[in-house]
């Protein structure tokens, strides 16, 4: 089965995306998917199966796995225990090439990240040892999350026991040109979401007609381009609301919407509530009033 290419939305003021999922706030299944970002997953406990590329590995009592970008995989977590927690850390290739690489002191960490292209499954002893450090991500700001991740990577780079799932991993079966084209689309949306996104412009940039572009995007992601753009913009709107108690219309324009009623419908579609109710739940009586959205 061909993997669906997933878009990872990293916050504007962060280099990483770090999410924590419990049995009460479980990650919605992405199915069999692929994305260019590196991914580290810590599953606290319970039994499950890792489906990565052509490999299948069962685990008991949790797992710590680190895989490079563009490696197809299914979801890793499980709901076997009520106190289970799954921490998912994702970052782009630029995090390694443009940020970490400038520090020669981080040589071991750079080597570890590069080795993740073979997929690393770490020993249960180091998994348990690092549990307090993974657990604390939920209480940290962006700067502290970065520092905490570097500490974890430092620990993992120090000859810790691990299994290499692949001797080498080839993308030949997954059409590198198609993956590269999807990456260009995601990057275009990330750079232009706050303004008008021209289907004609992005199609031309990729050497496609608008119709062939839409067919290609639907084939690779199982969703329409406009649906993807709207959800991306709503996620950015949520980021802006979470940063400060601001006017709804300001966030609407900053996230790329121009019609208040359309913005409200799309917000409710992807967040399950209206913008005003979202803000009320977050800021209560301190809510700034500007529209009944």
Automatic annotation (TrEMBL):
Residues 183-281 form the HTH araC/xylS-type domain. Keywords: DNA-binding, Transcription, Transcription regulation. GO terms for molecular function: DNA-binding transcription factor activity; sequence-specific DNA binding. The keyword Transcription applies. The keyword Transcription applies. Gene3D superfamilies: Homeodomain-like, Jelly Rolls. Signal peptide: none annotated. PROSITE patterns: HTH_ARAC_FAMILY_2. This is AraC family transcriptional regulator. It comes from Flagellimonas alvinocaridis.
């Amino acid at each position: 089965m061909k993997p669906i290419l997933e878009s990872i939305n990293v916050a504007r003021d962060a280099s990483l995306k770090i999410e924590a999922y419990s049995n009460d706030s479980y990650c919605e299944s992405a199915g069999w998917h692929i994305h260019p970002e590196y991914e580290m997953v810590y599953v606290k406990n319970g039994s499950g199966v890792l489906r990565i590329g052509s490999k299948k590995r069962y685990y008991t009592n949790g797992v710590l796995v680190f895989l490079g970008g563009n490696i197809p995989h299914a979801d890793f977590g499980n709901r076997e225990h009520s106190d289970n927690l799954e921490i998912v850390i994702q970052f782009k290739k630029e995090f390694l090439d443009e940020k970490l690489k400038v520090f020669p002191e981080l040589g071991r960490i750079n080597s570890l990240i590069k080795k993740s292209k073979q997929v690393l499954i770490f020993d249960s002893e180091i998994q348990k040892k690092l549990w307090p450090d993974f657990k604390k991500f939920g209480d940290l700001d962006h700067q502290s999350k970065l520092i905490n991740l570097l500490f974890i990577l430092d620990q993992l780079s120090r000859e810790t026991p691990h299994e290499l799932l692949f001797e080498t991993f080839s993308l030949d079966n997954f059409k590198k040109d198609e993956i590269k084209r999807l990456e260009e689309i995601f990057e275009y949306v990330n750079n232009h979401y706050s303004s008008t996104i021209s289907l004609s412009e992005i199609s031309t940039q990729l050497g496609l007609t608008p119709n062939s572009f839409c067919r290609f995007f639907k084939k690779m992601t199982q969703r329409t381009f406009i649906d993807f753009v709207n959800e991306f913009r709503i996620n950015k709107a949520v980021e802006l609301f979470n940063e400060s108690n601001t006017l709804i219309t300001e966030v609407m324009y900053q996230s790329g919407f121009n019609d208040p009623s359309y913005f409200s419908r799309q917000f409710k579609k992807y967040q399950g509530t209206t913008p005003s109710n979202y803000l009320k739940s977050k800021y209560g009586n301190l809510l700034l009033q500007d529209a009944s959205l």
